[in-house]
């Protein structure tokens, strides 16, 4: 067990989308630092898995499901100190599909509704439910919103995703001003592509390559050269940053988006 240098012992932290990808890694880092972690994810069954961890099956697009998850977290651990809004989705789409008359990779109502439901509605109403509980119990807590370098920079095929992550950054700034008087911090973290996420699933890769009109095997060509540090990020680096922001050692950080992109994005 890693030494609990961030002193998260006794803190209860919800991680949405915490059963896979960067969410799983974040949840593991928080537990290593002594936190009680609630994994809120559509892919888990509700119930305690191991000491200090509670899985709650959650659909972040459903307010009823969100409220039930918050109730389960409070029933198990008594309070909520930190929320990590990690649940998200990315469907590469062009504004106008100029490569095919079928328009399979063009922004349509279905893609728009799905991405805004998860990336914006889910974040807004999960935060609302958690903050209501924090205010009720006079908890000076922390909201950590997982954004993306795409929220700082536009890119081909990513306008819809970029817009949802840009909204994440805007919500972060506004909520920090609304909630600061209650001692509640709100901060966003914007990672770039890291060693295990990003170009991951065949369906995603196919869609992204299509929107850029290149073969799939050329997707990552030259990407590392665009990063000043010359490499993609490590999951540990992201995990420790989130754990630090969840701790009392970051008590004066709020209302900002912290880039963790190796210098690629400096917005």
UniProtKB/TrEMBL annotation:
Which Pfam families does the entry link to?
adh_short
Q: Look up the domain of life of the source.
A: Bacteria
UniProt GO MF annotations: oxidoreductase activity, acting on the CH-OH group of donors, NAD or NADP as acceptor; quinone binding
UniProt keywords, alphabetically: Oxidoreductase
GO BP, sorted A to Z: bile acid metabolic process; fatty acid biosynthetic process
Q: So what family is this one in?
A: Belongs to the short-chain dehydrogenases/reductases (SDR) family.
Question: What PANTHER family would the database entry show?
Answer: 3-OXOACYL-[ACYL-CARRIER-PROTEIN] REDUCTASE, SHORT-CHAIN DEHYDROGENASES/REDUCTASES FAMILY MEMBER
**UniProt-recorded name of the protein:** Short-chain dehydrogenase/reductase sdr
Organism name: Trichococcus palustris
């Amino acid at each position: 067990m890693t030494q609990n240098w961030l002193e998260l012992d006794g803190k209860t932290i919800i991680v949405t989308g915490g059963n896979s990808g960067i969410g799983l890694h974040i949840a593991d880092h928080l537990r290593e630092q002594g936190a009680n972690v609630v994994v809120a994810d559509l892919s888990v069954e509700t119930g305690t898995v191991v000491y200090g961890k509670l899985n709650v099956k959650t659909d972040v697009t459903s307010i009823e499901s969100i409220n039930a998850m918050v109730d389960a977290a409070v029933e198990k651990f008594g309070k909520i100190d930190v929320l990590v809004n990690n649940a998200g989705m990315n469907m590469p789409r062009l504004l106008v599909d100029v490569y095919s008359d079928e328009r399979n990779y063009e922004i349509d109502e279905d893609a728009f509704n799905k991405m805004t439901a998860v990336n914006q509605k889910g974040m807004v109403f999960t935060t609302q439910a958690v903050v209501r509980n924090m205010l009720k119990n006079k908890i000076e807590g922390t909201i950590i919103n997982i954004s993306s370098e795409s929220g700082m920079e536009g890119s081909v095929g990513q306008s819809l995703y970029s817009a949802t992550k840009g909204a994440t950054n805007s919500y972060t700034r506004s909520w920090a001003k609304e909630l600061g008087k209650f001692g509640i911090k709100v901060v966003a973290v914007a990672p770039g592509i890291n060693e295990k996420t990003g170009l991951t699933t065949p369906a995603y890769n196919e869609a992204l390559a299509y929107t850029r009109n290149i073969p799939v095997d050329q997707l990552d060509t030259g990407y590392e050269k665009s990063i000043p540090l010359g490499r993609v990020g490590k999951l540990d680096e992201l995990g420790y940053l989130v754990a630090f922001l969840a701790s009392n050692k970051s008590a004066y950080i709020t209302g900002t988006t912290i880039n963790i992109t190796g210098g690629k994005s400096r917005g």
